[in-house]
């Protein structure tokens, strides 16, 4: 059997602290520390416990060239090497290991930077209910946070004495300033209202649609209303449509060149609502928006140019941030509410849309739709442009 090391693996030393009554009885701090090593390899679904023999073997077996396993037994314990093959950290050419080999090849072929691949893969959530966890930890409001953690660092950095600062004029005001000031994260959607089809189409066109294309040197480049690193626009819109007039509730992909919806699946209404809730980690004030959009990055598109590049993953995350701001402003202009959230269960979203996280990464979820007439969930509107003092929607 031939083997090679998997393309990317990071070994992390961990310390686990557990309550130990004996330590307390001995007059110590009551805690027992256990040290361990875990291997984080993005072609595997879970982290893998390893020991120092495993690490020594992994360090000495090349990821690029195939070696004969029987020949390696002369240098490393057989149990260590066989264990590494079973764990999927050594990739074999055997038919029995084809699935792991294919996942490793997907990572290899994509030109991932090792640290970025590990950060992306092991930052994903499944089954998290973020609000409830914050409540359990006693940190669900600003008052809870400051009571537990003390005040946060100051709101701004001060680099000069007040008298040394050069005062600047405020923006003159105008339609664009008004639009910016009305932008706020919506946590109060009208749970019944249908979004008109034309409004929905305008939103997708403005935020994700190709406004123009340039075909040059064998490549097609999109022009969108947001900037994108390398002009590559790797981020696609995968939609959970819940209430849009004339469009069957279900899962869709948006085709940015054709400005068209590609139907994927239509789960029954309760399954769709459940998926929406799971997607946003049970933040139900977001889950009932008429449209949720998963921002899904096709890594191959950006990593085609930025190969094994230290900045590439950061750049695609920044791209997603720009799209979300364009979505906020487009929604605000249409008198709609909008949100973005990073508290998402990527694993459930990937399963629903049939995405492999090694090739297509869910970076955030946005949503939009009509606001409710009154505010029940907290929003940050100190300018009073969205809600009046009584918590009612300000209509213009
Ligand atoms: C990257 C990102 C992630 C966010 N994630 C969440 C989230 O998980 N839950 C939430 O309620 N708001 C989330 N927000 C919204 C912020 O809480 C919101 O922008 C902030 O409170 C300021 O309010 P404003 O957007 O109304 O000005 C997120 C915003 C950004 C930019």
TrEMBL record:
Gene Ontology molecular-function annotations: oxidoreductase activity
Concerning InterPro entries, the annotation shows:
Bacteriocin_Proc_Enz, Nitroreductase, Nitroreductase-like, SagB-rel_DH_2, SagB-type_dehydrogenase
The Nitroreductase domain covers which part of the protein? Answer: 180-369
Q: What is this protein called?
A: Peptide maturation dehydrogenase
